[in-house]
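Reproducibility note. Readers wishing to regenerate the assembly model reported in the main text can use the exact inputs given here. Chain order matters: entities are listed in the order in which they were concatenated for prediction.
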Amino acid sequence: MTEKPLVRRCMRDQVRDVLLERILEGTYAPGHRLIELELAAEFQISQSPVREALRELEAMGVVESQRYCGTRVRASDVREMQEAYELRAILEQNCAQLAVPLSAQTLAALESDLQDMQMSAAMQDVMCYSQAARSFHRHIVVESGNRLILQIWDNVQVRARLPFVAHYLVEELREFAAVHEPILRYLRNGDGVAAGDALRAMMQGLSSRMALLTTSHQVDSPEGEQAR
Amino acid sequence: MTEKPLVRRCMRDQVRDVLLERILEGTYAPGHRLIELELAAEFQISQSPVREALRELEAMGVVESQRYCGTRVRASDVREMQEAYELRAILEQNCAQLAVPLSAQTLAALESDLQDMQMSAAMQDVMCYSQAARSFHRHIVVESGNRLILQIWDNVQVRARLPFVAHYLVEELREFAAVHEPILRYLRNGDGVAAGDALRAMMQGLSSRMALLTTSHQVDSPEGEQAR
DNA sequence: AAAATATATATTATCGATAATTTAACGTCA
DNA sequence: TGACGTTAAATTATCGATAATATATATTTT
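Running the prediction on these inputs yields the following structure tokens for the assembly.
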């Protein structure tokens, strides 16, 4: 397993980034155990930096660990994803209101993101769609001017697992992209309330969809590596 | 400096809690340096658990550290506090809506908190007031049923530095306590929207007050211990 | 055979020491 | 004097090893 040489920048940060990447990309499935000394051996470093990286990931909510029992990738259950979308609904509704009026520059960026969404929706490119959608929504949060909310949103975003969700909605990506059109229109007209309401409705719709996954699909069930 | 014996429960957690307490109580003023080996010596443990505790506090946003340069208590600037109250306004407004109708038990708890607030307001006991107010608002967030929001709220709560804010508002604690009366009444009547609106107004009022502190007071200026 | 107990193993939590790095203090030279 | 380099001191980052603990496995007891 060859990996980048891990030089310059403290080991801890590098390990964190590598592990986070692996988790988000799915290399480490939910439930996968992360053993400190094993990882230390792989990276050819000692236990300490690995340990600290894991603690950081734990604070971020992507792994969880129990005293003396090890650390494993969190299986984001349906309930949590639902809650994440419910929270996003609230945050983004308000951010839209705070963000208007938007600069021409920001509007252009949103326009560009929307085009990317429509393009990738047509090609059913889930990863690409997720990225564009994330960018679209994030711009609105940024423009709210509240850095704390942005920080929180970024955190919640990780838990919302959009790439995962988009995968289940691959047939409907076009429709989801289309929903963003009126939102952009409202924003362009400076109607933050309408844009906010539309954003909220969209997110709450997704939240409801999450609930349906509970029964139809088994979400994030660890396949290869199980709890013992 | 005698302290609790720090036994049972991993050292890291105990250290974290002690340090957090000291920071929130003001024993460690903003800007205060936290030196790993110094703390390790005080607690009679090694550097590692102290270090991990500091990393955790950093993730919580109460301290900040630079590579090889040490860790110090964050000076929560006015802007951040303002943003925190703006966010609380949004979260609590929505939580009130989600929380109704409340159980008799919860209403009783809110009633009790309100009494504590009025009592401590009368005695100008800032710490006591802060605690009661925190409990009051937290109950509402808990009853929203959204655990993720609760998690976020707890985090934001730390940044809002209520004890600090309350100190500046000590003369007005009575009035602030009184504002909670109609909120409780709305909640008792099951009017989540009205309660939410009132909560939001209160929080936004505080947010505005924070802005005023910018000019009139020098907030959180490290007195004893300075940056070098 | 089932329950309870002891042993073994795997892994984390902590330790004490060293390496790496930053900042401050000092001295040198133009 | 002041810019510049150099050493010294302070502190973090990392290391390698040990202690503590949980889980799994084997053993005994009833």
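We highlight two features of this model. The radius of gyration of chain B is 19 Å. Residues 1-7, 215-228 of chain B have pLDDT under 50 and may be disordered.
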